[in-house]
Amino acid sequence: MFTLTICFAALAALALWLIKPLHRFARIYGLVVSLVVVVLFVIMALNFDTSAAGTVQFVETYPWIPQIGVSIAWGVNGMGLVMVGLAVFLVPVVILASWNELEEESAYRAGGYVAWVLLLEAIMIGLFASRDVFVFYVLFELMIIPMYFLIGRYGGENRKRTAIKFLLYSLAGGLIMLVGVVALMAYSDKVDDASTLYLVETLAGNIPEGTAQIWLFVSFFIAFAIKAPMFPVHTWLPDTTAEARPGTSTLLVGVLDKLGSYGMIAFCLPLFPEASQAAAMPIMILAIISILWGGFAAIASKNLMRLIAFTSVSHFGFMILGIFSGSSVAMTGAIVYMVAHGVATGAMFLTVGFLGQRTGTYEISRYGGWQRVTPLIAGVFLVSGLATIAMPGLSGFIPEFMVLAGTFKVHTVLGICAVFGMLLAALYLLWPYQKVFTGPVPEDAASYKDMNGIEKFVSAVLIAAMFYLGFAPSGIVDVVTPVGEESAQLVSTVGDSATGVSLNDEGSVQ
After folding, report:
1. What are the angstrom distances between the C-alpha of 433 and each of 292, 306, 359?
2. Which of 177, 188, 393, 408 fits a disulfide with 470 by CB distance 3.0 to 4.6 angstroms?
3. What distance in Å separates the CA atoms of residue 449 and residue 261, rounded to the nearest whole number?
4. Nearest CA-CA partner of 255 in 342, 174, 335
5. DSSP letter at 204?
């Protein structure tokens, strides 16, 4: 099923490049293709055995380079399934949100943008479904190509410089990971079946303890920390989101950056459990710094896109804190957090994008009183922002509460520090809202119109998803809980498997 889905999206992108008449219908073509991918995913999700969510399902394995034990191997557990779902959900949303923007461009440029998005979708699905470490690395590097062109060709005035910065950071992380992947070959004699040398399930438990495992862990962790993005290797993100299109930023921060936190759970913990335990405390301290640094930087931001980027640095700190806390509840919360953050932050990027399309700027100082001019845009921005700062009833509340509750149980001081990050979140949301949407209306703002029909539909879909994750998250929580419990055991040094916090069948906290 994954082979069909990935090939369909990739071949659809290739067809859009090669068949020039399709350029005139690029938006409709891209939307139809992305919706077909959604249907294929729904079929897969309906056949997923939730009672065995901790095991890999929909397994496909095809020999690729048997001489070194590399196979094209697909399959997902509960975490992989929800991450694939996040990717296929956001792609049609991004295409719809970019509808008016693409209409104003030439057919050639619009076709190129949609084609790169579809290729990126195929790669994203492959990344979250890959079970072979080598194949994951290849896709991890290939992901740079469509994102580089989406930034460098379709971004703002400084798009070329920003694309180069993104490229350098991404290549640096990939090259560091390559060292680790190559080093894994040294342990081929520990694996019984050489034809599946790089399968995570086969490698897990076969990496020797000691210095070798620590260095292997570091090579993978640094690559994932750059992608996360985590302090202090986060500086590429604000520049990128300030220059990239809102749709590009949505896919980058909403989905691709989750490869950092996803990779830590799916690769670092099972492959290097002893090193993960040894490094847990320093990493959690860095996570706290990310939470606070991102919050303060967001408050100081003068550009709306950079502000959202810095809030994401803070939110990724919460995710990484939950991953390395050793608490199963915090770990599960971190996984749910990835989905909730992708939806809410995607909504913020797109909503600010709607505003920027009308005014041509994201500078906060250029606004004021826009609530009276575009009340719907103001409302969606506020709801999305409240979701990102964990307002009860919205998508961010349950996962953030789980991360904090689990962390408090095992690391009280770190939990207190993380709570301070929540206080900063209220400031970095309410201050820009006040500056942009309240106060007197600028004289030149009266001629601008509020959301059109497509923008209303996109916003309604995203708000519905935020309320679903806020009021009835049990469908996702139940699917990822087995993965969270198993992963937490790999990093736990205190034997914590529960914190006394759970969810009932309706998804409410008990």
Report:
1. 20, 15, 17
2. 393
3. 39
4. 342
5. T
